[in-house]
Backbone:
């Protein structure tokens, strides 16, 4: 699988639509899965789980790049509530499909892509500029700086 | 997706706008999963239409926080409020936010109680059983082997899949509400044979013969296998309902276990080979004395002060036999003036406990038997609590983090002793 360079320092990953729509913004990347109920403060989009590497960090308006969901069956309600509060991520890129994240992405109306041809957790870093085209299943990454 | 004629008709609105919105949500959800069809389900457990204060106020500020508005706009993720008919599937409501009688003791407001009572009237009007428990399988909803279900609540999901051999994914509020109306859920994950095979082998090398030890074993296994499917062999004695309840809840807390197999015990594991479906385990692990001790220490890592001011039993909700055990240990005694003892159960078990005189024995000893909720869900502990004692590994995982208190984990006897003396003396034997 080769890295397709469309411009200098731009990487394109191809995968599958989870939820359609297009959004772009700054990436927030973690290798930890995220809990919904009991794991985030929905009104501010902040991760609250003790020992989580993003503890205290908000995903509001970010492109959230992570392995996926874990924890309580209240995952979708927590992220759905974040959307109502205006604290949802702009888009999601994730690697492990579960019912929790699928339902959560749907009710957040959040452009989301998975099953990518390259590992997004290895290629995308926090602060990179990422465009997610949910309908086409394409993730375009512009590295932060050279 | 491949839809049947009946599913397509519902999606086209032939059965009214609520089912149309529900099918629209389920199709979006199925496509997100990558599922290409639905299965029929006649057993759905969720929390339809009830809402947090934030969600309630959000819709109130936009003009309509009625049950129908919240069900339409939040549960069904619809863009307009639609009339909600009676549920099609056999549907039940899981745990709620407060005890309907002892809500003052839990620190709840009269406004919150009114809100809950109104929601409850709506549930009845829509044909939803108000079980108000995390243990529907002990309180009026027991599926059969092989049934396709759509359940929320991680401890109930793992019990449904593992002990009963019925089939459910961990569903969410929106998907269960839509399934209640339509009787449909995506055919994905645990609905399919291939997905139900074991991945990790755990050999138990120490005797595991109490609720306490089954809980610790579950907690260890969840931490090791995370969301995978463990196959357990070895020294497992008397695998009753209560032991499975504590094992599964613990494994679903330290990890994300939704299905486990115990060879010769659970219905899809007549043999090791059957449990793995002929495949080789990804990993083989052992649970010996060192693992048991490490698990005990991890579960007790939040305790420093031995002055216990709160003892909570009933996570997952107590079975009648557990209330009986507590009553036997407390009969004719009085709990410490410095301590509180709350036992949580379902309404159905509470009626049985009342009928057997157990509730009275417990009340005379100074304990309270509460229904509908628990300290973690209600975020309610006796005023001034700094140190809690628990016989549930799941609750020991969640409660200290949620309420910012210290916690001890031990046997039910350790916990009752702590309630009687106000002191924690538990230790691993």
Residues:
């Amino acid at each position: 699988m080769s890295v397709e360079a469309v411009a200098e320092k731009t990487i394109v990953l191809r995968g599958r639509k989870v939820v359609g729509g297009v959004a772009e913004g700054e990436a927030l990347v973690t290798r930890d899965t995220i809990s919904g109920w009991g794991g985030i403060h929905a009104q501010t989009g902040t991760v609250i789980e003790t020992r989580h590497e993003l503890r205290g960090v908000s995903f509001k308006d970010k492109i959230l790049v992570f392995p996926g969901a874990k924890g309580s069956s209240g995952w979708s309600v927590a992220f759905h509530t974040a959307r109502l509060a205006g604290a949802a991520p702009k888009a999601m890129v994730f690697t492990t499909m579960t019912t929790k994240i699928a339902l959560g992405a749907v009710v957040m109306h959040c452009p989301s892509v998975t099953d990518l041809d390259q590992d997004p957790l290895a290629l995308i870093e926090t602060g990179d500029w990422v465009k997610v085209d949910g309908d086409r299943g394409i993730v375009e990454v512009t590295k932060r700086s050279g | 997706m491949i839809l049947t004629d009946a599913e397509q008709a519902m999606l086209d609105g032939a059965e009214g706008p609520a089912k149309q919105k529900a099918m629209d949500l389920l199709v979006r959800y199925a496509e997100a999963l990558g599922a290409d069809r639905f299965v029929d389900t006649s057993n759905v457990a969720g929390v339809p239409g009830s809402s947090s204060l934030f969600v309630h106020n959000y819709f109130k500020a936009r003009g309509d926080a009625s049950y129908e508005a919240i069900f339409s706009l939040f549960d069904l993720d619809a863009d307009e409020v639609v009339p909600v008919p009676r549920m099609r599937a056999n549907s039940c409501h899981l745990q709620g936010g407060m005890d309907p009688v002892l809500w003052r003791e839990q620190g709840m407001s009269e406004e919150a109680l009114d809100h809950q009572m109104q929601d409850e009237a709506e549930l009845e009007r829509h044909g939803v059983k108000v079980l108000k428990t995390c243990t529907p399988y002990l309180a009026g909803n027991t599926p059969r082997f092989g049934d396709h279900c759509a359940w929320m609540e991680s401890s109930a999901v793992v019990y449904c899949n593992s002990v009963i051999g019925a089939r459910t994914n961990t569903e969410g509020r929106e998907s269960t509400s839509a399934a209640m109306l339509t009787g449909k859920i995506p055919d994905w994950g645990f609905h399919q044979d291939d997905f139900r095979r074991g991945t990790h082998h755990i050999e138990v090398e120490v005797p595991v013969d109490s609720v306490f030890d089954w809980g610790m074993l579950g907690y260890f296994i969840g931490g090791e296998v995370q969301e995978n499917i463990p196959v357990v062999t070895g020294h497992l004695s008397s695998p009753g309902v209560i032991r499975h309840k504590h094992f599964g809840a613990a494994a679903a807390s330290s990890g994300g276990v939704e299905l486990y197999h115990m060879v010769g015990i659970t219905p899809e594991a007549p043999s090791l080979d059957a449990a793995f479906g002929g495949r080789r385990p990804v990993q083989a692990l052992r649970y010996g004395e060192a693992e048991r001790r490490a698990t005990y220490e991890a579960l007790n890592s939040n305790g420093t002060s031995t002055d216990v001011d709160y003892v909570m039993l009933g996570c997952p909700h107590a079975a009648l036999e557990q209330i009986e055990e507590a009553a036997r240990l407390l009969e004719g005694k009085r709990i410490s003036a410095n301590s509180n003892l709350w036992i949580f159960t379902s309404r159905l078990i509470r009626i049985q406990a009342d009928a057997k005189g157990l509730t009275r024995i417990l009340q005379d000893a100074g304990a309270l038997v509460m229904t509908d909720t628990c300290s973690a869900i209600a975020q309610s502990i006796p005023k001034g609590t700094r140190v809690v004692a628990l016989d549930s590994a799941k609750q020991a995982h969640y409660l200290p983090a949620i309420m910012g208190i210290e916690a001890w984990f031990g046997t039910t006897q350790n916990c009752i002793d702590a309630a009687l003396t106000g002191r924690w003396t538990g230790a691993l034997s």
